[in-house]
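User: My instructor asked us to take a sequence, write out its structure as C-alpha cells, and then describe one feature of it. I'm not sure where to start. Here is the sequence I was given:
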Amino acid sequence: MKIVQLVLRVLMWIAVGMKLTTMAGVAAARRLPDADGEEMALLFLALPAEAAARMEGVGIAAGAALAVTAREPGEKVLAGGMSSGLLVLLADRLLRERGHGR
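Assistant: Let's start with the prediction itself. The C-alpha cells for your sequence are:
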C-alpha cells in the first residue's frame, strides 16, 4: 500500500507543480512591456500548458485516491485540498473555453 500511496503522491505533486509553473509563466508573459515579447513567451508556454491541462485529471484522481487511502489526517486534508484546488482550476478553464468566463 505504501508504494501505491507514493505513486499517487508523485502524480499529484507533478500535476500541481506543472499547473503552478504554467500559471506563473503566463502571468509573467502578460507583464512583458512589448506585445511581441508576450506573444512569443505565450507561444513557448503552449506545450507546457497543454501538458499541465492533461495532468489536471490525473492529479485530481490521484489526490482524491490519496485522501481516501492515507492514514494520517494531515495528509488526507492536504491531498483532498490539492485535488479540490485542481478541480476548481479545471472547471474554471473549461468554463472559459466555452465562453462562460471573463
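For the description part of your assignment, you could build on this observation: The mean pLDDT is 86. Try explaining in your own words what that tells you about the chain.
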